[in-house]
Amino acid sequence: MNTYQHQLHCPPSEIDLAFWKLPQGVAIPDDELTFLLVPDTVEAMAVFELAQQVHQYQQAQSAQGAAITRALMATMGGMLPGILLYDHLCKGQPAGTPRIEFGTIGVSLYKGPNERHDSPQVQQDISIPIGDAVVLVIDDLGDRGGTLQFLTQYIAGKGARQVLTAAVYMKPLALQNCPVNFYFGEVAQDTWIITPREMVETMIKRVPVWRERGADLRECQRRLVDIIGYPPQVAEYYLRQIFASG
Predict the structure, then answer these.
(1) 106 and 143 housed in the same domain
(2) At what angle do helices 199-212 and 232-245 cross, to 10 degrees?
């Protein structure tokens, strides 16, 4: 069993966060991308580290009145890390720091499968007042940096005094185009990250590509379970339908 497979299936006490900060995706035959499945426990531990970064910022900035008082989860990617962060930042708020009010903003880069807009589109506007506030934008991934850059400019234009950003993972182009204030790890540009919220979505998007390139049902099952590390019951439940209809 290689390190990646061990980290997917090991008990929490054996999770190596140093591995997950700079993980290498696994290769799939005839696919230009590599794939990285992030288990629930790793996601929670990564967000806890993000929360500690924000706690330190809050403690350093509170005396100057520059601490974060609003947080916006970018839907859909920012919802899972945002909900986990809420527990740490609101219920675990350090003494002497201001309360953070959480809200959402919905943006999309895609018109449909693999069909991108020229720029991100606001689908659901900011859900809480942010005037003259220090705002933290939360997302799961910085891919090329376009969405985070757009959100920063858009929220500033809506009256925020300052906009900070947080993401669980960042890719090189995102770090180059729109560095974030808080993040956990880095992955290669060609890595497809599969978070706990998008296991089925990834199957829907990728299994048809594998089928078109010659993979049969059994081979798709092997790729999902034996290589990427999907739970067998999840792959078995959805794969046949996706393979037939994709």
Answers:
(1) yes
(2) 50
From residue 54, alpha-carbon distances to 67, 134, 212 in Å are 10, 13, 45
Residue pLDDT, tens place only, 145-195: 989 999 999 999 999 999 999 999 999 999 999 999 999 999 999 999 999
- Give the Cα separation of 211 and 3 in Å (integer): 28
**Do 33 and 47 have their domain in common?**
no
Reported as a single tens digit per residue, the pLDDT across 16-35 is 999 999 999 999 999 999 99
CA dist 64 and 91 (Å) reads: 23
Query: How many contiguous H segments (helices) and E segments (strands) does the chain have?
Result: 9, 9
Number of domains in the chain: 2
E runs forming strands in 147-230 = 162-170, 182-186, 191-194
Beta-bridged to residue 35, according to DSSP, are 26, 192
Say which DSSP state 77 is in: T
